[in-house]
């Protein structure tokens, strides 16, 4: 009876150890997998940081281009090239004293 | 014995190991931790861009553009000669204005310059160093051209530099950005200097743990401080008006053979500066190419004798004191006046006995002004000069403003009071005169001139309100003098340029330049100051030419420019003539 009890206890102990070993092995695998994934994410983070910097730079360059092309000095050159000339004579129209019916 | 020796040696060996370990782990602990941190923790500065300076309509006057400092890593560069040659070609093309058809001499010159540049670069990259700056700052396009060459060991450090879409427009008003003793970007002169604290940003920083390859670790240590961009300044300067004034001054300098020119347009009711230009100026993007004298803004720092433009202020003071009216007759205007051993004449040596005060302003009569000065006396004259703001800074938001000292009252003699009445023997700056004349246009109220209307910090906007300094004259006196100035335009020396149907109040000024104790009869400062429409002034403007050679008179140089700009301003503001 005592021997049987001892045998059952040893079997349960072995089972517990086996579960621990399996959990431990699975944890190691997960850890390796996670570390591996994170190592790849480092590269991705780097790429994202560079992409952000690149987009900010592009935004600034485009803003500068807009400012340059809409500047008065640039507009003046463009209108000259298009053949516009300054107004040499102004005519003012009288506002009639009465209202007209449409 | 042998056993003892072995045992002793063993203990010595263990002791040495213990001492060494203690040295590394206790004494050098902090240094080693720091070294380890630098290997696995990367700290990167994030540049904060300098704030922009914007016109009143939000268009850009000064902004930033990315720039790239070129560096080399000599240990990585295998073919140094071809790298130097390739870079020198690009750097030379960036700096030079290339003509399509080069003469043989120019071609030789080009080759020599490129070879010299190539030698300089080769010397730098041949040094036994890991990193060397090539001292070349390039823009995006040049950076792209270099990148395309795929040169090993050549890299770029990004920075920002000032960018001026309007070129050298408003250089004196803007100032420029340079480096301080610590190599940080700092504003000098003009708005850049005055508002440097607001314009400069605060750099950010990212600290993150990295792996052996220098890549960031996702679950590693990470901290960041966002960069804070500089604040943006919104000016009262209207780009259209600024352009009108600049164009007219440039053409006026050429037309009248002047050495320099200045122009200021101000809203008399608020003190807002709508335009401010002066020539010769400099390129704010390349200040190092110009002498230091060019950096001073003549509108706020150059002093001159205002001449006849000052007469309207003395007249305003006399009317405010009820000493004269426009109809008061001048009892001494029949001929020259002798005072303290000096003879005072009219500018054309023509005399009108019993001229009215209105005539005195219309004909810019120096003797008539002496008549007023005698009625005013020293105390009142001095008091009004101070009340109109002369002798003090105007308070304009530019750091380089200067104010000529007013002589102490005790040093004034009768002749000084007399000559001051027609703007001689007294020095002013253009901004002081514009502000004083604006008092007449603004119902007698003296305003503080201001360039910046708003400071924008992200979503927060600080608006700078107009500031009334004082009221030197009454609204009634201002109205009377305004009409006298309208008469001066319509009937005076500049009547040929007056605009039909528009009420412009103005006054010409031709001031001789004092040189070595006497006035040079051939060199003058010609100016015209005025405001319009006289009944509800939208602008007050001063146009000034330094030493014009085609004519020495303000009526023939500054007045035409004034009226040309005024005509454009009427169209711009949509102001219609009262008759046409």
Helix and strand topology:
The complex is a heterodimer of chains A (102) and B (580).
Chain A: H1 2-69, H2 72-82
Chain B: H1 2-27, H2 29-40, E1 41-46, E2 53-54, E3 60-72, H3 80-95, H4 104-125, E4 132-138, H5 140-149, E5 154-163, H6 171-174, E6 176-179, E7 185-188, H7 190-194, H8 196-199, E8 204-209, E9 222-225, E10 232-235, H9 239-256, E11 260-266, E12 273-279, H10 298-301, H11 311-320, E13 337-339, E14 342-344, H12 357-362, H13 366-387, H14 414-421, H15 430-441, E15 446-447, E16 452-457, E17 460-463, E18 468-470, H16 475-491, E19 505-515, E20 518-532, E21 539-546, H17 558-573
Parallel strand pairs in B: 2-10
Antiparallel strand pairs in B: 1-8, 2-3, 3-4, 3-5, 6-7, 8-9, 10-16, 11-12, 11-21, 13-14, 15-18, 16-17, 19-20, 20-21
Summarize the helix and strand pattern of chain A as letters: HH
Helix percentage of chain A: over 70%
Strand content of chain A: under 5%
Number of helices of chain A: 2
Assign a percent range to the helix content of chain B: 25-40%
Average pLDDT score of chain B: 89
Extended strand count of chain A: 0
- pLDDT average of chain A, as an integer? 84
Write down how many β-strands of chain B occur, each being a DSSP E stretch of 2 or more residues: 21
Structural class of chain A: mainly alpha
The stretches of 5 or more residues of chain A where confidence is low (pLDDT under 50) are: none
Q: Strand fraction band of chain B?
A: 15-25%
Which oligomerization state do the chains in this entry correspond to?
Answer: heterodimer
Overall outline of chain A: rod-shaped
Low-confidence stretches of chain B: none
- How much is the radius of gyration of chain A in Å? 41 Å
By helix and strand content of chain B, what is the structural category? Answer: alpha+beta
What is the largest interface, and how many residues per chain?
A: A-B, 24 and 31 residues
């Amino acid at each position: 009876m005592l021997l049987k009890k001892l045998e059952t206890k040893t079997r349960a102990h072995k089972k517990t150890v086996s579960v621990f070993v399996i959990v431990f092995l699975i944890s190691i695998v997960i850890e390796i997998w996670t570390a591996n994934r994170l190592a790849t994410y480092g590269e991705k983070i780097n790429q994202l940081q560079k992409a952000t910097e690149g987009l900010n730079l592009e935004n600034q360059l485009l803003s500068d281009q807009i400012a340059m092309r809409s500047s008065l000095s640039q507009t003046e050159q463009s209108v000259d090239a298009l053949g516009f000339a300054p107004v040499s004579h102004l005519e003012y129209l009288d506002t009639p004293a009465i209202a007209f019916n449409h | 014995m042998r056993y003892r020796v072995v045992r002793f040696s063993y203990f010595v060996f263990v002791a040495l190991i213990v001492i060494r370990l203690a040295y590394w782990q206790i004494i050098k602990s902090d240094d080693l931790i720091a070294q380890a941190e630098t290997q696995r923790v990367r700290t990167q500065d994030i540049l904060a861009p300098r704030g922009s300076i914007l016109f009143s309509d939000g268009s850009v006057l000064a902004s930033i553009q990315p720039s790239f400092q070129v560096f080399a890593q000599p240990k990585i560069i295998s073919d140094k000669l071809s790298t130097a040659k390739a870079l020198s070609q690009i750097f030379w093309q960036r700096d030079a204005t290339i003509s399509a058809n080069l003469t043989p001499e120019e071609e030789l010159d080009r080759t020599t310059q490129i070879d010299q540049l190539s030698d300089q670069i080769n010397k730098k990259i041949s040094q036994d160093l890991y990193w060397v700056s090539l001292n070349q700052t390039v823009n995006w396009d040049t950076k792209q051209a270099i990148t395309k060459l795929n040169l090993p060991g050549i890299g770029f450090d990004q920075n920002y530099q000032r960018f001026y879409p309007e070129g050298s427009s408003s250089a004196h008003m803007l100032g420029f950005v340079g480096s301080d003793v610590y190599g940080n970007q700092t504003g000098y002169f003009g708005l850049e200097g005055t508002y440097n604290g607001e314009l400069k940003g605060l750099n950010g920083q990212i600290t993150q743990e990295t792996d052996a390859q220098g890549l960031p670790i996702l679950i590693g240590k990470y901290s960041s401080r966002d960069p804070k961009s500089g604040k943006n300044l919104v000016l009262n300067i209207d780009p259209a008006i600024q352009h009108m004034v600049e164009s007219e001054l440039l053409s006026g300098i050429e037309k009248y053979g002047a050495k320099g020119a200045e122009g200021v347009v101000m809203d008399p009711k608020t003190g807002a500066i709508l335009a401010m230009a002066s020539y010769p100026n400099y390129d704010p993007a390349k200040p190092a190419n110009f002498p230091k004298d060019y950096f001073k803004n003549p509108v706020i720092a150059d002093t001159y004798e205002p001449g006849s433009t000052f007469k309207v202020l003395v007249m305003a003071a006399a009317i405010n004191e009820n000493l004269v009216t426009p109809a008061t007759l001048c009892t001494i205007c029949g001929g020259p006046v002798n005072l303290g051993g000096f003879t005072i004449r009219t500018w054309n040596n023509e005399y009108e006995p019993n001229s009215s005060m209105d005539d005195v302003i219309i004909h810019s009569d120096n003797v008539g002004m002496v008549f007023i000065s005698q009625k005013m006396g020293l105390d009142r004259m001095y008091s009004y000069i101070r009340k109109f703001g002369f002798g003090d800074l105007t308070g304009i938001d530019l750091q380089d403003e200067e104010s000529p000292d007013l002589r102490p009252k005790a040093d004034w003699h009768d002749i000084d009071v007399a000559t001051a009445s027609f703007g001689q023997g007294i020095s002013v700056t253009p901004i002081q005169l514009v502000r004083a004349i604006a008092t007449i246009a603004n119902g007698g109220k003296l305003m503080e001139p201001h360039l910046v209307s708003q400071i924008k910090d992200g979503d927060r906007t600080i608006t700078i309100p107009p500031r009334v300094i004082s009221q030197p004259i009454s609204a009634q006196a201002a109205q009377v003098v305004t009409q006298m100035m309208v008469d001066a335009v319509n009937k005076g020396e500049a009547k040929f340029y007056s605009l039909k149907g528009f009420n412009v109040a103005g006054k010409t000024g031709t001031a001789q330049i004092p040189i070595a104790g006497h006035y040079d009869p051939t060199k003058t400062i010609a100016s015209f100051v005025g405001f319009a429409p006289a009944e509800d002034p939208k602008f007050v403007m001063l146009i000034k030419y330094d030493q014009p050679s085609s004519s020495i008179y303000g009526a023939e140089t500054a007045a035409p420019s004034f009226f040309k700009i005024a005509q454009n301003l009427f169209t711009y503001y949509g102001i219609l003539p009262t008759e046409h």
